[in-house]
Design a protein that fits this description.
Blueprint (H helix, E strand, L loop, with lengths): L1 H9 L24 E5 L2 E6 L8 H13 L9 E6 L4 E3 L2 E3 L7 E2 L4 E5 L4 H12 L5 E5 L10 H4 L8
Parallel strand pairs: 2-3, 7-8
Antiparallel strand pairs: 1-2, 4-5, 6-7
Length: 161
């Protein structure tokens, strides 16, 4: 029932669901921290290679779910795995640091970075996917305390009455 509403409201033909979000996400699982479409049949999926990390199981489950999904055409999604950054801890709280919270503009793609080795991997992978515009990494360590990054910061604000 909710899928029908979402499809009608947004004018889309299909809604895809994954189970959970990352630790520190105060929204109980915003998709812009875990999975993002980069074109009509390709998604980046955040993965946590360290099995001891509390995000590993959730992201592994999401990856398995994505691998079973089909588009309306019957085609399987192309999935590009993107590693999670090192944990960002602020006042003993784990902030929801994720490269998936990038912002796509006409002039480029702004990617949050977290001053860790995975930054380069993320920027290189996203650069291979967005060949029509520059991919620019900007430190998000100061803004992630607000529990979001560039995609979250650039959301629309409804017009008031």
């Amino acid at each position: 029932q909710i899928e029908e509403y979402l499809m009608e409201y947004y004018g889309v033909d299909q809604v895809l669901w994954v189970s959970d979000g990352i630790v520190g996400d105060d929204t109980d699982g915003h998709i812009d921290d875990t999975v993002r479409f980069v074109n009509s049949d390709t998604v980046i999926a955040m993965v946590e290679p360290k099995k001891s990390d509390e995000n590993h199981e959730v992201l592994d489950k999401n990856l398995k779910e994505l691998s079973q999904m089909r588009l309306i055409s019957g085609k399987q999604l192309t999935i590009v795995e993107l590693p999670m950054p090192d944990p960002v801890i602020i006042d003993e709280f784990r902030a929801p640091g994720s490269y998936a919270n990038f912002y796509i503009s006409n002039a480029g793609v702004l990617v949050p970075t977290f001053d860790c080795p995975q930054d380069k991997i993320a920027l290189d992978l996203l650069g291979q996917l967005f060949t029509d515009r520059p991919v620019i990494g900007l430190s998000a360590k100061k803004i992630i305390w607000g529990q979001g990054s560039f995609h979250c910061l650039t959301q629309q604000e409804p017009q008031g009455n």
